[in-house]
Amino acid sequence: MARSLLAIPLLFALSLAGSVQLTKKDGTPPVYESSTPPKIGPNSTQGDKNYKAPLFPILNWTQYENNPILGANENRGWESSFVYNPTAMVIDDMVILLYRAQNSSLISTIGLAWSTDGYNFTRYTEPIFYPTETYENKGTEDPRLIRVNGTFYLTYTGWSDSDGVKLCQAISTDLLNWNKTGPVLPDITESKSGAILDERQSDGNYHMHWGDIEIYLAVSQDLVHWTMPTNDSYATGLLEWEQKLIESGPPPVKTRDGKWLKVYNGVADKDIDNGKYVEGQYSTGQMLIDPDLFPYGPPVARLETPILTPDTADEKQGQVANVLFSEALVQFKGQWLMYFGEADTYLGVASAPVQP
């Protein structure tokens, strides 16, 4: 498989440089940025120091009253139009976000932001990931991140003139210097939205869920080379709010009883319940999966109703209307934080309590 190396110069410092607030653009949140990114390496600690594995489901979600927390930055061309659809991880007692950014030509790159409270973020002034290969010349989109043995594995959507939409992957130890390993399933005509379970399963493989109409399964011994053990779908849309399509959200999270909680996004195919759901609306749900008993699916259970729906003006109006698309889930300082795209325009967050 073809490989390429994407390197970003690392600015060394004994501590993070102070962030600078830039002028607020009408309708967007303030921008705080720094030219010095966090120093992350193989020995950086991962996860909240008081982490408790969840029970299924995680309920009682509340949207942050000051959403959106990130928006376009008119002072940086690469993120001057839209900022949304992040992945997240807790590293060295900070929430680290990798987010999708679009320029005036709507070419997508990936930016880096960090926070010590989970709500107020400083962003790095340069993109950390951007198109360099023919299979992604039109954009690098919708990142999802896991970490295994000190190495970060990033799945993302590469969009190109020649190959269309392909699920791609890259590897890093510091989130700045990346080794691109190319399309994950090169023989599949269209692929995207890869969410990896970050532990080897009982069949000896790592599992990844992918697809944006139905969810499919791919397996790997090394987290780089992936195959499909079956052409059957792992999960399909069953409920009224997800009839048109379902798509993975963040990487699944292991529950206290050894199963996995999977956050996903669903789309309604028609107006339902007097406008409760409208045609094309993206909402966020949860399902419970058991790779040991049902490695090829279906899910063990799913919630009948979404946990998050596009209810605010920022989610109902924008580049794509009526979209709340969740792609990042972390536990941080006693609460769950879900980060999501709002109408493919802004980035928001919701919180839920950690179960006792």
UniProtKB/TrEMBL annotation:
Residues 27-46 are annotated as: Disordered. Keywords: Glycosyltransferase, Signal, Transferase. The keyword Signal applies. SUPFAM superfamilies: Arabinanase/levansucrase/invertase. Residues 33-46 have a biased composition (Polar residues). GO terms for molecular function: glycosyltransferase activity. Transmembrane segments: none annotated. InterPro entries: Glyco_hydro_beta-prop_sf (IPR023296), Mannoside_phosphorylase (IPR007184). The keyword Glycosyltransferase applies. Residues 1-17 form the signal peptide. PANTHER family: GLYCOSIDASE (PTHR34106:SF5). This is Glycosyl hydrolase family 32 N-terminal domain-containing protein. It comes from Talaromyces islandicus.
